[in-house]
Design brief:
181 residues, alpha/beta, 5 strands, 36% helix, 14% strand
Length: 181
């Protein structure tokens, strides 16, 4: 029941009756706001008929502090289901179709990509996980890594059984199963 904002840009001459190739970007962590901005790389995609969209999922900062809180700790899965919901919306409303949909995320957004790949591999033609944080559980269990203890404020401390079980339930590395990715 939560509305998830999507920022989109596409060529003005795009046919509304024909699904287009679409790149859906997501991040959703650290209260970071993904603002629409100019990019020559993006312009090249737009000139070729691709739609560029940003899913402003919970965990990011676009909706204020409460929006962020709804996508961290024991609410992290909201980020993943929000991204999937955005993809489904874009397909349902004829912006794109599964075989033309590319999902992209970097770092914590790479975690998002890993999670949605495990949850809905059928929904995306391609998923690009750039420098992904996909081994969440093992990483967060190693306090000798430089950033781990600082990250407890975002993901939770998995030495606490509640956080351990929750992180284990979505950590992409720990949830790869036999399916058609």
């Amino acid at each position: 029941g939560v509305e998830i904002p999507i920022s989109m840009v596409y060529k003005k001459t795009r046919s509304e009756n024909k699904p287009s190739p679409l790149l859906l970007y997501g991040y959703g962590a650290y209260e970071h706001v993904i603002e629409a901005s100019f990019s020559t790389t993006r312009l090249a995609l737009l000139e070729r008929g691709m739609i560029y969209a940003i899913a402003h999922v919970r965990g990011g900062g676009e909706g204020g502090r409460e929006w962020y809180e709804q996508g961290k700790f024991l609410n992290k899965k909201n980020s993943f289901t929000d991204f999937i919901t955005c993809a489904e919306y874009l397909i349902k409303n004829n912006f794109t179709e599964t075989d033309k949909l590319v999902a992209v995320g970097r770092s914590a957004g790479g975690l998002l990509m890993g999670a949605v790949a495990n949850l809905r591999p059928d929904l995306f033609h391609t998923i690009v996980a750039d420098v992904p944080f996909v081994d969440v559980l093992n990483t967060m269990l190693d306090p000798t890594l430089p950033l781990t203890t600082l990250e407890y404020g975002e993901w939770g401390n998995p030495t606490d059984k509640t956080f351990y079980n929750y992180i284990a339930s979505y950590s992409p590395y720990d949830n790869v199963t036999a399916k058609n990715y």
